[in-house]
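Two quick folds needed for the group meeting slides. Do the first one here.
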Amino acid sequence: MRRLFGIILVIAGVVGLYHVWSGGDISLHRIGALLSREVNIEKAVDAGAVEHIRIHTDSANVRIVKGESEQAYVRLQGSAGRHYADNIDLHVEQQGDTLELGLEMPEKFWFFFNFANVTLDVTLPEKQWNTVDVETGSGNITIDGLETDSLAFDAGSGNVKLIDGQAEIKGKVGSGNILVETRELLHDADLKTGSGNVTVKLAERPESLHVDYRGGSGQGRIQWDGFVYEQESDERDVVKGSFGSGEVQLYVRTGSGNFTLK
């Protein structure tokens, strides 16, 4: 308790001195800048034998893009509290044909210095992956141009954006939105949110797509012509039907949030 009290006094002293030095500007942004430092760590991995990608972070944004090299590049960038920045590192481990990526974080640190705003950037070789699995506790997920047989994601709190890729998708978000933006859906998709919207944005009208949507307090909207309804409730919290023969399955569930196919 005495140690904690001492740290609080030190922090109060630092803030007081900074108040005098800055002419009274003690905004949270400026204090955060004073107590933080830049994080920039990068590692490269030979991904020639890799078929599966697994990414797990407790508190970081994740961004995956395709590159032109045969190597996978993993980079952690952003800013963090000084203690955090001094002890954070990348976790990169290859086990057989599986590449596991994540962060190695300090286990114990004082609450005031426990803040970080970092992004895990992953650049993968352009090829057909077998599986890609991404899990975050708190943070956004962005995946651009990835082609894989199976894509799974699980975000506790954060938005998920999937752009111009092809995969069978299964993912859920506790609190946050899901956006799928591509030319057409060629594979099944299973999308769930506890609190947040689900938007599927296609460049071309679906030719053979079955839609099954149910929402707790949200509504479903189909903004393409040619959709044949099998079921639609008055509140639009249930929407079921097909374009064409409905070979590709789009399954969507929202607790509190809307679904839009456009």
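Then this one, please, same format:
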Amino acid sequence: MTGPVAEGNERIGDLVGREMIVVAPLIALLLVLGVYPKPVLDIINPAVENTMTTIGQHDPAPSVAHPVPAVGASRTAEGPHP
């Protein structure tokens, strides 16, 4: 895949069934948590909130200071550009 096999690695084969049985659940867990991380976040959220309170920080709601006009929006003061 990335070039010739290095010397000494010729005998290393692909995963066998027993190794696949160990790796497959880990891959499945990673995929599930990548798509739906809420269960883990719900577990760690109290500790995070406690830490934020201890250090005197808060988690402000996201905001946009000055909205940027959409591309192609008409400009009333200047008129359209060529």
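Slide caption for protein two: Helices lie at 17-35, 38-54.
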